[in-house]
Amino acid sequence: MDFAELGRMGMKERMMDSIIELFGKKGFQATSIQDIVDANGVTKGTFYYYFKNKEDVLVHIHQSFIDHLLEGQENIMTSEGLSNQEKLYRIVELLIGNIRTNGHSALVFFQEMRHLSEEKTAIIMPKRQQFQLNIQKVLEKGMADGEFKKTLRADMLSYAVLGMANWSYFWYEPEGEVDEKSLTDLYMQLIFNGVKEETNDH
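C-alpha coordinates predicted for HTH tetR-type domain-containing protein (202 residues):
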Protein backbone atom coordinates (compact mmCIF):
# COMPACT_ATOMS: atom_id res chain seq x y z
CA MET A 1 0.00 0.00 0.00
CA ASP A 2 1.56 3.31 -1.10
CA PHE A 3 1.38 6.69 0.64
CA ALA A 4 -1.28 7.96 -1.76
CA GLU A 5 -3.57 5.06 -0.89
CA LEU A 6 -2.91 5.58 2.81
CA GLY A 7 -3.81 9.23 2.37
CA ARG A 8 -7.07 8.34 0.65
CA MET A 9 -7.97 5.94 3.44
CA GLY A 10 -7.18 8.59 6.02
CA MET A 11 -9.36 11.15 4.26
CA LYS A 12 -12.28 8.72 4.06
CA GLU A 13 -11.99 7.88 7.75
CA ARG A 14 -11.88 11.57 8.71
CA MET A 15 -14.91 12.25 6.54
CA MET A 16 -16.74 9.30 8.09
CA ASP A 17 -16.07 10.63 11.59
CA SER A 18 -17.49 14.05 10.76
CA ILE A 19 -20.48 12.58 8.89
CA ILE A 20 -21.33 10.35 11.85
CA GLU A 21 -21.27 13.41 14.11
CA LEU A 22 -23.46 15.37 11.67
CA PHE A 23 -25.98 12.53 11.34
CA GLY A 24 -25.99 12.12 15.12
CA LYS A 25 -26.68 15.80 15.76
CA LYS A 26 -28.87 16.81 12.81
CA GLY A 27 -30.26 13.50 11.62
CA PHE A 28 -29.78 11.77 8.28
CA GLN A 29 -32.45 13.63 6.32
CA ALA A 30 -31.57 17.08 7.65
CA THR A 31 -27.89 16.66 6.78
CA SER A 32 -27.14 17.70 3.21
CA ILE A 33 -24.18 16.83 1.01
CA GLN A 34 -23.25 20.51 1.28
CA ASP A 35 -23.20 20.22 5.08
CA ILE A 36 -20.83 17.30 4.76
CA VAL A 37 -18.38 18.94 2.37
CA ASP A 38 -18.44 22.19 4.34
CA ALA A 39 -17.64 20.34 7.57
CA ASN A 40 -14.71 18.63 5.89
CA GLY A 41 -13.44 21.52 3.81
CA VAL A 42 -13.69 19.49 0.60
CA THR A 43 -15.65 19.65 -2.65
CA LYS A 44 -18.67 17.60 -3.63
CA GLY A 45 -16.41 15.87 -6.10
CA THR A 46 -14.33 14.61 -3.19
CA PHE A 47 -17.44 13.30 -1.46
CA TYR A 48 -18.56 11.40 -4.54
CA TYR A 49 -15.06 10.03 -5.00
CA TYR A 50 -15.44 8.12 -1.73
CA PHE A 51 -19.21 7.58 -1.54
CA LYS A 52 -22.01 6.94 -4.03
CA ASN A 53 -24.56 8.93 -2.02
CA LYS A 54 -25.72 9.56 1.54
CA GLU A 55 -27.29 6.11 1.80
CA ASP A 56 -23.92 4.57 0.98
CA VAL A 57 -22.51 6.36 4.04
CA LEU A 58 -25.45 5.26 6.17
CA VAL A 59 -24.94 1.62 5.20
CA HIS A 60 -21.26 1.88 6.09
CA ILE A 61 -22.11 3.32 9.52
CA HIS A 62 -24.60 0.54 10.20
CA GLN A 63 -22.26 -2.22 9.08
CA SER A 64 -19.30 -0.91 11.05
CA PHE A 65 -21.39 -0.46 14.19
CA ILE A 66 -23.03 -3.89 14.24
CA ASP A 67 -19.84 -5.67 13.15
CA HIS A 68 -18.02 -4.08 16.10
CA LEU A 69 -20.73 -5.22 18.51
CA LEU A 70 -20.88 -8.73 17.07
CA GLU A 71 -17.12 -9.09 17.38
CA GLY A 72 -17.22 -8.02 21.03
CA GLN A 73 -20.17 -10.29 21.72
CA GLU A 74 -18.46 -13.26 20.07
CA ASN A 75 -15.38 -12.72 22.22
CA ILE A 76 -17.57 -12.80 25.31
CA MET A 77 -19.52 -15.88 24.27
CA THR A 78 -16.40 -17.88 23.47
CA SER A 79 -14.56 -16.89 26.65
CA GLU A 80 -13.85 -19.93 28.79
CA GLY A 81 -14.68 -20.01 32.45
CA LEU A 82 -17.58 -17.53 32.31
CA SER A 83 -21.00 -18.47 33.62
CA ASN A 84 -24.06 -17.56 31.60
CA GLN A 85 -24.82 -14.81 34.11
CA GLU A 86 -21.34 -13.38 33.58
CA LYS A 87 -21.70 -13.56 29.81
CA LEU A 88 -25.02 -11.75 29.94
CA TYR A 89 -23.52 -9.11 32.22
CA ARG A 90 -20.60 -8.51 29.88
CA ILE A 91 -22.84 -8.23 26.83
CA VAL A 92 -24.91 -5.54 28.53
CA GLU A 93 -21.68 -3.91 29.70
CA LEU A 94 -20.49 -3.95 26.08
CA LEU A 95 -23.62 -2.11 24.95
CA ILE A 96 -23.43 0.49 27.71
CA GLY A 97 -19.69 1.04 27.28
CA ASN A 98 -20.21 1.54 23.57
CA ILE A 99 -22.16 4.73 24.29
CA ARG A 100 -18.95 6.48 25.34
CA THR A 101 -16.86 5.29 22.40
CA ASN A 102 -19.48 5.29 19.64
CA GLY A 103 -22.31 7.48 20.87
CA HIS A 104 -23.14 9.24 17.60
CA SER A 105 -22.83 6.00 15.63
CA ALA A 106 -25.27 4.38 18.05
CA LEU A 107 -27.84 7.14 17.60
CA VAL A 108 -27.54 6.84 13.83
CA PHE A 109 -27.79 3.06 14.06
CA PHE A 110 -30.99 3.10 16.08
CA GLN A 111 -32.70 6.16 14.61
CA GLU A 112 -31.84 6.20 10.93
CA MET A 113 -32.26 2.64 9.69
CA ARG A 114 -35.71 3.54 8.39
CA HIS A 115 -34.00 5.59 5.69
CA LEU A 116 -32.29 2.56 4.17
CA SER A 117 -33.78 0.93 1.10
CA GLU A 118 -35.19 -2.59 1.36
CA GLU A 119 -32.11 -3.92 -0.39
CA LYS A 120 -29.74 -2.27 2.09
CA THR A 121 -31.92 -3.15 5.08
CA ALA A 122 -31.70 -6.80 4.03
CA ILE A 123 -27.93 -6.57 4.45
CA ILE A 124 -28.07 -5.12 7.97
CA MET A 125 -31.05 -6.91 9.53
CA PRO A 126 -29.53 -10.42 9.69
CA LYS A 127 -26.62 -9.03 11.71
CA ARG A 128 -28.93 -7.22 14.12
CA GLN A 129 -30.97 -10.40 14.47
CA GLN A 130 -27.82 -12.42 15.10
CA PHE A 131 -26.90 -10.17 18.02
CA GLN A 132 -30.33 -10.78 19.55
CA LEU A 133 -30.16 -14.52 18.89
CA ASN A 134 -26.79 -14.72 20.61
CA ILE A 135 -28.31 -13.19 23.75
CA GLN A 136 -31.16 -15.68 23.46
CA LYS A 137 -28.64 -18.53 23.30
CA VAL A 138 -26.96 -17.34 26.50
CA LEU A 139 -30.33 -17.23 28.23
CA GLU A 140 -31.32 -20.67 26.93
CA LYS A 141 -28.01 -22.14 28.07
CA GLY A 142 -28.48 -20.50 31.45
CA MET A 143 -31.91 -22.08 31.74
CA ALA A 144 -30.53 -25.48 30.76
CA ASP A 145 -27.73 -25.12 33.32
CA GLY A 146 -30.11 -24.09 36.10
CA GLU A 147 -28.86 -20.50 36.34
CA PHE A 148 -32.07 -18.93 35.03
CA LYS A 149 -35.73 -19.78 35.49
CA LYS A 150 -36.97 -22.27 32.92
CA THR A 151 -40.48 -20.79 33.04
CA LEU A 152 -39.39 -17.68 31.13
CA ARG A 153 -39.26 -17.35 27.35
CA ALA A 154 -35.69 -16.74 26.29
CA ASP A 155 -36.68 -15.01 23.04
CA MET A 156 -38.89 -12.41 24.74
CA LEU A 157 -36.38 -11.92 27.53
CA SER A 158 -33.60 -11.30 25.01
CA TYR A 159 -35.66 -8.51 23.44
CA ALA A 160 -36.31 -7.05 26.89
CA VAL A 161 -32.58 -7.02 27.67
CA LEU A 162 -31.81 -5.37 24.34
CA GLY A 163 -34.62 -2.85 24.71
CA MET A 164 -33.43 -1.74 28.12
CA ALA A 165 -29.78 -1.45 27.10
CA ASN A 166 -30.41 0.10 23.69
CA TRP A 167 -32.71 2.80 25.03
CA SER A 168 -29.78 4.06 27.09
CA TYR A 169 -28.28 5.47 23.89
CA PHE A 170 -31.01 8.11 23.86
CA TRP A 171 -30.60 9.43 27.38
CA TYR A 172 -27.47 8.17 29.12
CA GLU A 173 -24.62 10.64 29.54
CA PRO A 174 -21.34 8.80 30.27
CA GLU A 175 -19.82 11.96 31.75
CA GLY A 176 -22.68 12.33 34.23
CA GLU A 177 -23.08 11.19 37.83
CA VAL A 178 -23.66 7.52 36.98
CA ASP A 179 -20.73 5.68 35.43
CA GLU A 180 -21.04 2.80 32.97
CA LYS A 181 -20.45 0.08 35.55
CA SER A 182 -23.09 1.49 37.90
CA LEU A 183 -25.66 1.59 35.12
CA THR A 184 -24.77 -1.94 34.04
CA ASP A 185 -25.06 -3.12 37.65
CA LEU A 186 -28.49 -1.49 37.94
CA TYR A 187 -29.76 -3.15 34.78
CA MET A 188 -28.38 -6.52 35.77
CA GLN A 189 -30.00 -6.33 39.20
CA LEU A 190 -33.33 -5.82 37.48
CA ILE A 191 -32.68 -8.67 35.05
CA PHE A 192 -31.17 -11.17 37.47
CA ASN A 193 -33.78 -10.61 40.15
CA GLY A 194 -36.34 -11.52 37.55
CA VAL A 195 -34.62 -14.49 35.93
CA LYS A 196 -32.37 -16.10 38.54
CA GLU A 197 -33.54 -19.48 39.73
CA GLU A 198 -34.41 -19.47 43.41
CA THR A 199 -32.37 -21.79 45.61
CA ASN A 200 -32.81 -23.10 49.12
CA ASP A 201 -29.61 -21.39 50.25
CA HIS A 202 -30.27 -18.58 52.72
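The chain has two domains: 1-51, 53-195.
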